[in-house]
Amino acid sequence: MLLLAGGGGLLSFNTGFAIWIAITMVVFIFLMAKFGVPPIMKALEEREHKIKESLESAEKAIARAEQISKDNEKALREAETKAQQIRKEAVEEAELIRTERINKAKEEAEQIIDQARTSIEQEKRQALTELRSEVAKLAVASASKILDSELDEKKNHKLVDNFISDLQKN
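Given the sequence above, the corresponding structure tokens read:
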């Protein structure tokens, strides 16, 4: 019972105090609605706008990054294709150079062989000529010793030349 007796207990009700609380609350709500809520709402709207802009920016950046990625992939494929083409051309060029060098070496070898054949043929003719001359001299010398008085040297030389010529024809 003490609680109901008016001494400021927990369950006691003071009407004057309640009215002041209600008036203060209305004034607070009015002041908040007039001066506090608009800046808060404005700040929230600005924040929402910035978030939307950030999301749009992020979407644009993602789209741009995807486009750049596609462009990079395309450039990479083109570079690989070009590299393969360059490799192919280099191999073809190397093969062409190799073939040219082989052909040139064959031509030079054929020229050397032809020169050697020509040189051998000339040396052979020269050797035959020298051999004929030597044989003629020997034949004339031996014939002149045998037939010392019967024939002269010019006739002997002519006879031996005719004999050697006849041997070549056969």
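Residues 68 and 74 are 10 Å apart (CA to CA). Try to locate this feature in the token string yourself.
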